[in-house]
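Review form for a predicted model. The reviewer records the input and the model, then writes brief findings.
Reviewer: anonymous (R2)
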Amino acid sequence: MSPLSLPYHENFDSYIANQDLSCFFIFNSSKYTDTWVVKEIFIGSQPNSIATEISYPDDDDFLFLPPFRTEPNKNYFISFDHNDAAFTLYRGRELNVDSLQFFDQVNNQGGFHQYHRFFHASSYDTIYFAINSTSNNRIDDIEIGEYVCDPPYNFTHAMAGDSVTIQWESDFSDSLEIVFNAAEPIYPYENIQIIHQNSAVFHNLLGGQNYYLSVRGICATKSPWKTYIFSLPPGNDACINAINLIPYEFPDFQTSRNRIYYWCNQFRYNKLHGKSGRRCLV
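Model under review:
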């Protein structure tokens, strides 16, 4: 296979169902396994993704992505959408399973997710990534490119009645994609809007409700998503003196998630420091 020109993006929408993957190399260790093929299964972009159906526990399949060249002292990323099945990602310099080295392990997380990881290149090289599947995997929207677009950071918000203005910083983004939800968003996101400033205003919000704003930068490529969670104080007198703790933003491609709490002054500043007390709002 010839090395790719970066940035590379493949969403398999130009394929037809059950078509073999001509630009990919598949090492299929078991005759019982349905090798990686195009399926009409929605993960990221409709109508197609690629999938492998594995029903035997000793199956051990490798999907080699097309190779690409790196340059010294540059950062690169690999990104794709995947289902809740576990897989292992390897990296090597040859189209050969024996040449592969461990890169990352992704466990069953439930639901669909975006995998996003960057890496540093110290020399001119040709790199192959390979997805090692031992279960029923679904992959879509593969992207590989130079890492030039950092996610937004330093989120803050200001309240005015039932409205909130959220601001953030972004170093390299000419424009951004945002998704606003009153429930924890499920990936892949829907109702994505494109804006051209580092702030957004939302109206008619309810007190005592968690809200989620997901943002990513658009440069030569797209940054990872960053999700910011906030709440308005409840609309009753029980927490009239509630104080707003510092909100926390988290990257969607990591597993740790923190929430934001409001605490009444008459209770002790509690569980965040292991002390007893009662929450007014979660």
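Findings: The CA atoms of residues 64 and 130 lie 4 Å apart.
Further findings: The two ends are 53 Å apart (CA to CA).
Recommendation: see findings above.
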